[in-house]
Every structure is written in C-alpha cells, then in structure tokens.
Amino acid sequence: MTNKEIKELLKLVSELDLREVNIKNKEFQIKIRTDKDHPAQVVSGGAPAMVQAAPVVSAAAAPAAPVAPAGQETSAQEETNYIEIKSPMVGTFYRSSSPDKPPFVQVGDTIAKGDVVCIIEAMKLFNEIESEVSGKIVKVLVDDSTPSEYDQVLFLVEPS
Fold first, then answer.
1. Which of 3, 87, 134, 160 is deepest in the core (most CB within 10 A)?
2. What is the DSSP string of 20-67?
3. Residues of the chain with pLDDT > 90: what percent?
4. What is this structure's pTM?
5. What residues does CATH 2.40.50.100 cover in the chain?
6. In the prediction, which pLDDT does 117 show?
7. Looking at domain 76-159, which of 3.30.460.10, 2.40.50.100, 3.40.50.2300, 3.40.50.12370 is its CATH number?
8. What φ, ψ does residue 15 adopt, rounded to 5°?
9. CA distance 44 to 31
10. What is the edge-to-edge ordering of all strands in the sheet holding 153-159?
C-alpha cells in the first residue's frame, strides 16, 4: 500500500465517520481506529512474521506551523500560485540520503513528477518522498532532521 493510498484511506475514514477499519494481506497490515480523544490513528505492520507498529497519525490535527529557513521569505500572495508538496506521513524529515550527501533538491532546482525530493523516517523505515508535480522548487518549509506531521507542507513548487 502506497503512502498516497494510506492518505486517501485516512480521508475516507474521516469523511464516513468510521470507528475502525482493518486491512490485512500477505505484505502488510493496517488498522485505523478513531475515538473522541484521538480522531484517527493508524497502526500498520510489515510482513506477518515481523509485525511493526507505525506512527500514530491524527487526521483531524492541524499541521505544525511550517518553519522557513532564514533568508527565504515569500509573500502570502505569491505562495497562492505555488503547488505544495505535503508529507504523506508522520516522521522525521531529511533533505538528503545521509549527512555526507547533498540534498535531493534545493531552492531553484527544477523537478519532474516522480523525482525524490526528501526522505521521511518513520519507525526506522526510510521512505523516499516523490514529487507529484513538475516545476521549480521555490521554498523549503521544513528544516533538515526535524519532525514532520501528516499533511504538513514540505516544499512549495512553481509549476512548469
């Protein structure tokens, strides 16, 4: 199950006001539970022989306020023309594959649909986040090695 499919599933559970959804097959297991205290929680696992708990995702929680790196300020008017690349999960945001490697993308870089723009680490699993749009990176909204929330805007892209 892809991150996009999980995101869509969370939206559907929220829209339908479901209390619990369980999906299990040979490759993974995902369980989404909602209650008053925690609007939506996701617990997923790997193969049946090695079940892991995934991060808790709150679908109704507002994303954390984005943190813009110093010297990269854009007016709110300009930002409305940009496409957002959002985090498909809760985890730790990394701009590069390792500390000694250059970032996947930087401000001013041109990206194509499917290009890896960052990594989100969740439960010791490193998930490459691919762009769903083509264009030019105009702003990086999250600092390297910091926590990211589900649906938090990571990058602003000027469409090409």
1. 87
2. EEEEE-SS-EEEEE--SSSS-EEEEESSTTS--PPPP--TTSPPPPP-
3. 47
4. 0.52
5. 76-159
6. 96
7. 2.40.50.100
8. -65, -40
9. 6
10. 83-86, 153-159, 135-140, 110-111
77's CB contacts (< 8 A; 6+ apart) are: none
Structure-block tokens of residue 62? 């507002």
Please identify which residue in the block is written with the tokens 């010791």.
124
The single residue listed with the structure tokens 């590069």 is 96
Which residue matches tokens 């264009």? 135
Name the token pair of 66.
């984005």
pLDDT higher at 141 or 1: 141
Write the single-letter amino acid at 119. I
Residue 1 Cα distances to 14, 41, 144, angstroms: 19, 17, 26
Q: Which residue has the tokens 């985890």?
A: 91
